[in-house]
Amino acid sequence: MRADNRNIFLSTLPATRHERVAALAVVGVSSIVFACAVPFAGTPLPQIPAFVASYQSALAIIDLITAILLFSQFGILRSRALLLLASGYLFTAAAAIAHGLSFPGLFAPTGLLNAGSQTTVWLYMAWHAGFPVLVFGYARLKDRDGGPRIAGSVGSAILGSVVAVGVAITAVVWVVTSQHDVLPTLLSEGHYTSTSVAVVSTVWFLNVAALLLLLFRRPYSVLDVWLMVVMCAWLFDIALSAIFNVTRFDLGFYAGRIYGLCAAGFVLAVLLVDNVGLQAQISHLFAILRQRAASDRHRHNERERLFSAVVESSNDAIITKNLDGTITGWNRAAERLFGFTAAEAVGNCIDIIVAPDRRDEVHQILGRVAQGEAIEHYETLRRHKDGRDVHVSLGISPIRSAGGEIIGASKTARDIGDSKKTQEALNQEIEERQRIFETSQDLILVTDTFGRFVQVSPSSMTILGYRPEEMIGHVALEFIHPDDLDSTREEMRSARRGRLMRNFETRYVHRDGQPVTLTWMGTWSEPVRRHFFVGRDITEKRAAEAQFRQAQKMEAVGQLTGGIAHDFNNILTVITGTIGILADAVTADPQLVAIARMIDEAAERGANLTKHLLAFARRQPLQPREVDVNNLILETVKLLRPTIGEHIQIAPLLTEDTSTALVDPNQLTTSILNLALNARDAMPAGGKLVLETSNFYLDESYADMHSEVAVGNYVMIAVSDTGSGIPAADLDKVFDPFFTTKEVGKGTGLGLSMVFGFVKQSNGHIKIYSEEGHGTTVKIYLPRATGLHATAEESLLPSGIEGGNEVVLVVEDDALVRQYVITQIESLGYTTLEASNAAEAMTIINTAATIDLLFTDVIMPGSMNGRQLVDEALKQRPALKTLFTSGYTENAIVHHGRLDSGVLLLAKPYRKSDLARMFRLALAS
Known about the structure:
Blueprint: H1 17-37, H2 49-77, H3 80-102, H4 119-141, H5 154-178, E1 187-188, E2 191-192, H6 196-216, H7 222-243, H8 251-313, E3 317-322, E4 327-330, H9 332-338, H10 342-345, H11 359-370, E5 375-383, E6 389-400, E7 406-415, H12 417-439, E8 443-447, E9 453-456, H13 460-464, H14 468-471, H15 485-496, E10 502-509, E11 515-525, E12 530-537, H16 539-585, H17 590-616, E13 625-627, H18 629-644, E14 648-654, E15 661-663, H19 665-681, E16 687-698, H20 700-705, E17 712-721, H21 751-761, E18 765-771, E19 775-783, E20 807-811, H22 815-827, E21 831-835, H23 838-847, E22 853-857, H24 866-876, E23 881-886, E24 894-895, E25 898-899, E26 905-907, H25 912-924
Parallel strand pairs: 14-16, 20-21, 20-22, 22-23, 23-26
Antiparallel strand pairs: 1-2, 3-4, 3-7, 5-6, 6-7, 8-9, 8-12, 10-11, 11-12, 13-15, 16-17, 17-19, 18-19, 24-25
């Protein structure tokens, strides 16, 4: 017996090689017999009417039995294809009966059913055309499992087929009898006419088409193989009965009928064999079922025993009860959980373990169970025998009778007291971790093995500008700075190789495109295969460190500059002072005059270089006062026009109500000139230089982005050009000293650094904007003035060189400078006293009869500097006038970048005219 029960039917049972060979052998033998009969098909034979009656009766019975067997298989398989084939055999049975009744000379001279001379031949053609059409439909629908199924009633489908076949046969008989005279003549005086060729060809074609479709519709079932044999026999039947024979009752007529009878017998034979086999299998199945029933009874008894053992040994309390709450079952676990023995519980109401305030809950549960509802994981409180509450998780299911009626409830109860405490502790821990996760200022990330974000803390919005839901599901590589991708991948690989904890830095890209530097602590969890990261934003820390390094650099440059300025300005003081004397002495020699002028220009450049270094290092002594920046810019424009050339257009855009600024006007003028000259160099082919002023308020948000900026009102000065612009890579370095993009020899790299230092020393702010190929704008924000800061002494400055006859004490540690200064002072008519340090000066101050002016260097060797010397001298001579000189002021007379109040300073290097003016100012103060 085949293992698959669906293969017990011929319509679904795959044909074996043996069956295909047997069918092919039958076709081969039939073909040989057919070939032998063809030459003799027209041989006349005696008319035997009884043969026709016997043939038609046998054929009708065989086809009817075959149809019934096929309908019975259809009743099980519900196959549409099988229904069509059964209908085909039922059609042939009915057609055979109609053909026999209407055959002339069989039951009546001209046949029954009001038959005419053409009735039987047309019935034959309709009969042999209808069957192949239904076989064609069967072949089209059938497949390995029998084809599409009928969804409705099987009886209705069979009845419908029987009715349809009956209607079809009735219609055919009516046409070939009542409409007999309308039909073309196929048989005349016992012989076939030429008209019959077309009809026979059509019938032949339908049979061939059905055979070919069966042949190509694989796989073959046993029924398919023998049905193909039937179709071959039908082709032989039609050929001998309607093509090769000449008239009725010749050899072809008899041989064709015999082929038709054999064709009907093939399928009936295999179906009968199939039924015999099926009966044998059913008997075998009954035996197996009896064995299984005995085995099932044994298993049922064993299962009952095991079920009882499982119930009694279960760690969960198992209780059964009626729908009224009466307990019918109580296992040992229930005894342990609730304290009642089975004898105490069974027969009592379930209320013995229910607190009074929860008994309505029990009745509601029983009501739901009575409706067929099953309740799972219902957590509640029940009462122990000793009165304490027990936390339980209940599972309640209805108990049904054999008829399906709900007769009770089965309940399992599990003590969840300890697990509930554990769960509460776990929930609290989860809640605490969630609060930490949600409130953390650090960025917490969880990724899978592919680097895809699984969890992201809400701090991502603050740190990166993305909401967590915008990052979850995306890979981390989408947010990491491109330069840090390789290092991040290596960190993740090393984590999976067993390096559990690691600390590293990676830059992410903020939503606004700015890099954010994060220092990470990461770990890898193998059980859940997740990366866990905690990242702290150190962008501001790095910025602060950069500012601190910049401050250190500035301090170092300042210290270096101070040392250079102190010695270099002493040298320049002598050079710039004596060059004027030398120039006056060589006026007769043009060549020497040119040399003297060249020396003077070189000294001036050296002095400017020192001033720029001091300005950048914020060590220059500023003298801020209230300045009208609009007037200052207009005056500066007058200086610029002849300097920058006619090819550059200067456009002042000055706001009329621009406030005054508190700033050193000389240094501001120098800064604007430096910026304008830089703009000129950026526009060699010409362009436009715009000088703009306006009032500006720098608010908290701007100050948050620039930590060195104080919130408040400022005067803004913007210098813009339409030149070549600055490459983006160089923007962060333009204020560094000695950095320049100009060719060698065309710039010192101190212009912008001097402006930067001056603005910072003036408590202002500077910002540069540039786009390569489009131009540059430098904006200076200076503190707005609140009142008049000009001093009375400034108005007393003489316009020309003026000497005097007062006594001046010169204190200078550099002998060369001291000698030069004394010579210049005496040339102005003054009487001089000299000292090389503070100690010598104090001796002279204590002993000299008259001293009108103390002219002292600020930085000197020894225990006292110039400022301390002045303080001590004023104690001895309160009316003594003082004037400081220095190439580097340090913090002796300058604080917060500004000269102390009442202090006069002559900065080195200086010329004789500067010396004369400052002497008169000091003596007049």
